[in-house]
Request: fold
Amino acid sequence: MKKVVWPKHSVLIIAIVATWLTTYFGYITSFNMKIDNMMQEFILFLNPLSFLLFVYGFALFMKSTKKRNIYLLTISILTSIVMFSNAVFYRFFNDFITLPVLFQTSNFRDLSSSVTANMHLTDIFFFTDVLIIYFAMRYVSEKEPKVQRGKIGRKLYFVMTAAVMMVNLGLAEMERPQLLTRSFDRELLVKNIGAYNYHVYDLFIQSKSHAQRALADGSELVEVGNYINANYTEPNPDMYGVAKGRNVIIVSLESLQNFVINNEMDGHVITPFLNELTHDKDTFYFNNFYHQTGLGKTSDSEFILENSLHPRNGSAVFFTHSGNTYDSLSERLGENGYFTNVMHANNRSFWNRDIMYNTLGINKFYDVESYEIGEGQAVNWGMKDIPFFEQTVDLMKEMPQPFASRVITLTNHHPFDLDEEDMLIPQYTSNSNTLNKYFQTVRYMDEAVKVFFDDLKEKGLYDNSIIIMYGDHYGISENHNKAMSMYLDKEITPYDNAILQKVPLFVHIPGYGKGKEMDELAGQLDLRPTILHLLGISTKEDMQMGADIFSPDHEPFVIFRDGRFVTDKNVYAQEVCYDNETGEETDSGACEPFIKRTTTELDYSDMIINGDLLRFKEEQTQHPEIKGQQKE
Ligand code: GP9
Ligand code: MN
Reply:
């Protein structure tokens, strides 16, 4: 075949376009990514481009055609391998590759046995670009340009690359605010920034935490351990072991804040069922309980509950430190004979749950695949809470007992959309559509919890269980202060914003009879020790920062991830000390000692996580008579 004469850099352009299109077709043929609108489709199409322009662009620095050709082919082979491996991996795990998975030996075993089984002949398609580039090199001859504009041309080229990247990130930010800081889900990352950029990002995150881990040593654990021991409080003998041997059901109530409890909206009761529980004799309702989450939202609340440690600042610890050693609630329950599991009808990689649950020693994750979502049973982010709870009870019925299930609801999630038939009360009227709809979805969730209780009773699981329910984090952010101020009929100050971080906590013990409303000031970090003590499992040896809420010595002091805190006397927010009773500014001296303790505790918690310090504890306590022992 005769060589055709094409303009200079034609081969480079062909290479970029060929790999770009191969990647895009790979996306749509081999991965099951949910695309909701034209904009998402466009972002998906655009997203491989910035990375490809960048890496292929280095060819512009190569003087010899031979070297350049080798470089172009190498890049196309590597990108094809990346896409091909992800496709094979996806068939098995329904997820994109992340580095920690490759390093987890148990995964590796699963992987190697299934790699061959999951390779398809059609996967050759992923190498189409290599072939096209090879032919381009053979049959296209490029014109020498009349004017040498090497340097300027290259500069322009990389400016254009950066511009494409900016457009891509800008559109992604519009579709998914805080995508990178919250890093929700690998699927969302790939959809928005592309598979290649995602891998670079993953590499960056994983190597950062690897480096911090490498620098840590066991001596730090001693320092943190001293702090933790000094804060340990003995359990309340009246409560210790009251639910021993029962199934444990922990319900995460999506975005539920405490201000709706025992409250009305335009004359409509918002949470009739939960209100009943607040004065039920089998229930302890905590009305002064705070969430302590950061950007990792639901996943942070799970992290706190499991570990009684603070989450990380500025990123989701489920993503950044899923390879650590933890002393989780689930692991402890597992050691005590419980079948531990999480039930949540979302895709398994959301919040990196599939990986993190493994790390936390959770026996099984009932994800969206375990549920059947019938016609009309999904709204907003996924399965509706009522059918979700119904199927959850059916699944529980099949579990070995005693089980410990964490059940995560979803309907009451921003943007709080509902189908007409599920709207049990009207909307609120204010300038915030979010707050207006919030009351309705909360009302729906309340109904769902009622259905859940009824079903547990009907299926005979109720009497032998303990049910703990908590709000995972706020639903109405400070952006809606104006509407909130209208609803609460008062001006919202930083003090009020802190108080609004209260979420309800219910500890429901069927047949107990001595429950009551509690105003002890407490937070999510207290859940782990409280639950374990109710089950008669000691936490004396554990590296946890919370304390048993029922303990007579429980200290009324709650630290927020962002450095705010609440004590029984004060609230500290935006560097101002407020009186907790009146909400008025007060002398900063009252807050001073707690400011110090807040910084110390948050630092220690970060030290544990960043240095992966609990691995040293594991090493020290290899003796079974010390580790995981039940103390009666
Ligand atoms: C997703 C659900 C919601 O699976 O838990 O997460 P959130 O956005 O609330 O953190
Ligand atoms: Mn949530």
